[in-house]
Amino acid sequence: MFRRQELVRFQHCDPAGIVFYPRYVEMINATVEDWFAQAVGTDFAKIHGELRSAIPAVSLQIDFHAPSRLGEVLDFDLTVEQLGSTSIKIRVSASAGGVVRLSGLVTLVHISLEDYRPRLWPEAMRESVAP
Q1: Alpha carbon distance 12, 10 (integer Å)
Q2: To the nearest whole number, what is the mean pLDDT of the chain?
Q3: What is the pTM of this model?
Q4: pLDDT digit string (tens) for 74-83?
């Protein structure tokens, strides 16, 4: 499991003073990006530059369980559910103070930037993400 923390800032909140739901998607993406850099060992700069590939989300399901408020620190946890030849399904959850705020399932596909078609995972990345 990979964990990162996110401080809920004013920019994340709506007029009701809670996290505006699209900001959660940005936080999930930041968690995925940090996971690739820190746990997988291949950051997005290398993926998009040297490797000439990308890892877009093709499916995103999020369930919201409780609101998050300005000043709270959220723990985002990421685990690999399933690894395919060109895709990966990951589970992401966020909690604070022992209360789950959201849970989600994200499917990413490794594609070539040349033709935007699915591409096999590079072996080093595949070994790093295998559940």
Answers
A1: 5
A2: 95
A3: 0.93
A4: 999 999 999 9
Q: Put residue 8 in one of left, alpha, beta given phi > 0 → left and psi -120 to 50 → alpha.
A: beta
Q: Which CATH superfamily is domain 2-129 in?
A: Hotdog Thioesterase (3.10.129.10)
**Phi, psi at residue 30, to the nearest 5°?**
-65, -35
- Break the chain into its structural domains and give their ranges: 2-129
Contacts of 25 (CB under 8 A, 6+ apart): 60, 62
DSSP notation for 34-80:
HHIIIIIS--HHHHHTTT-EE--EEEEEEEE-S--BTT-EEEEEEEE
3 state DSSP class of 86: coil
Residue of 26, 1, 17 lying closest to 81 (CA atoms): 1
